[in-house]
Amino acid sequence: MKITTARKITDSLHLNLFEIGYTNTRDEESLWTIASRASQPKCMTGRYDPPDAVVIVPFHKKLEKLVIIKEFRVPLGGLQYGFPAGLVDPGETTDQAVKRELKEETGLDLLTILKTSPPVYSSSGMTDESVSMVYVECNGTPCADANEASELIETIFVTPDEAGILCVSTEIKVDAKTWLVMNAFSENKTI
Amino acid sequence: MKITTARKITDSLHLNLFEIGYTNTRDEESLWTIASRASQPKCMTGRYDPPDAVVIVPFHKKLEKLVIIKEFRVPLGGLQYGFPAGLVDPGETTDQAVKRELKEETGLDLLTILKTSPPVYSSSGMTDESVSMVYVECNGTPCADANEASELIETIFVTPDEAGILCVSTEIKVDAKTWLVMNAFSENKTI
Q1: Distance CA A68, CA A66 (A)
Q2: CB-based contact (8 Å) between B91 and chain A?
Q3: How far apart are CA B43 and CA A80, in angstroms?
Q4: If you count Cβ atoms within 10 Å of the first and of the last residue's Cβ in chain B, which end, N or C, has fewer?
Q5: 8 Å CB contact of A174 and B120
Q6: Per-residue pLDDT for A188 more than 90?
Q7: Given CA atoms A156, A158, A164, A165 in this order, what sign does their dihedral have?
């Protein structure tokens, strides 16, 4: 299979649709619609690094608990449990983005970066969006003063047992990556 | 914060952009652009169940290995390591979708469904897409005969150590959910 063309079909500020032409396994020309935050999707630019965003898996060293946040997500029309996360700003390293987003969203202080994944893909059937999963240790007291106008964030500390309870609840909304880490944390008692 | 309006700004078959009006934390009217597979996004319909898709975490009982697939993803313009996955067809249960997609994409036979997550969200900053993570045991021999024209799928079996090697490689593309399961599998020797 091979990508042949990309046509931008919207002109929005933060997210656009592209119609991608490709050759399928029967050598027929086909079309696939994708969403991208970039002016050209990664399948056209060939640039797969750095990631678009960081997703932070924070472990609070003093409390010995996993840190998650509960925040209003416009696409879901309600509150979602997830990890602190955000786009990497132009000129910023992923480590800088981790420190900044952790502070802005939770008020907590970065201590140590334990592990950083290569760019991995959020939902490659519909978008070229990539993130790095960054496991960190942190300390401090939660504070929402640096939240933006589009943010309303509550910081929550969870034990493995509490993570397990969140994973089976059908009354709440949970981010997929956060669910997977909480599920492993509840079973293995470690991130 | 509160959702006030949704305006569909494209007319594509499989994926569309919507401009969502919402009231931010300062009581100002704001806009957020989202992508959705549905004719109305979940923040307008209020319907959050069933999930749009299933993502299958298959453990091969006889080989005692985790099953992953390598497939061409149009939005990434190349091969990605991921889990068998697919949209739940109309009228189909998630269990039926799991059995069908596992067979179509890998040729393997479902033995037991071990765990099913509630609908969880792929990337709630940009889309309302939800999936259920479904952990299963399977058996059988890989076969790509039921792949669709847009699919070119190779089935791979990995040990915890092999999963760990894939997790640190910068030469390949890996789906985020698959990376998280492989990372935990490499460290805890279990899914």
Answers
A1: 7
A2: no
A3: 12
A4: N
A5: yes
A6: no
A7: negative
Instruction: Determine the pLDDT at residue A35.
Output: 98
B contacts of A131 (beta carbons < 8 Å): 176
Q: Does A90 touch chain B (CB under 8 A)?
A: no
State residue A148's pLDDT score: 82
- Chain A within 8 Å of B180 (Cβ-Cβ)? yes
Cα separation values, A154 from A35, A97, A146, Å = 29, 20, 12
**pLDDT tens sequence across A17-67:** 999 999 998 999 999 999 999 999 999 999 999 999 999 999 999 999 999
pLDDT tens figures, A127-168:
999 999 999 999 999 998 888 887 889 999 999 999 999 999
The complex's ipTM works out to 0.97
Q: Is the pLDDT of residue A99 over 90?
A: yes
Tokens of A79: 């509150």
Measured between beta carbons, which residues in chain A are less than 8 angstroms from residue B146?
Answer: none
Quote the distance between the C-alpha of residue B165 and its chain's center: 22
- Residues of chain B with Cβ-Cβ distance to A40 below 8 Å are none
Fold of the domain spanning B53-188: Nucleoside Triphosphate Pyrophosphohydrolase (3.90.79)
> Does the beta carbon of A47 lie under 8 angstroms from any beta carbon of chain B?
no
Phi, psi of B162 (to 5 degrees): -65, -35
Instruction: Search chain B and give the residue with CA nearest A118.
Output: B170
From A22, which residue of chain B is nearest by alpha-carbon distance?
Answer: B74
Domain ranges of chain B: 2-45, 53-188
Tens of pLDDT, residues B13-60: 999 999 999 999 899 999 999 999 999 999 999 999 999 999 999 999
For B19-71, give the DSSP string: EEEEE-TTS-EEEEEEEESSSS-HHHH----S-SEEEEEEEETTTTEEEEEEE
Which token pair is A178? 């956060």
Q: How many CB pairs under 8 A join A and B?
A: 239
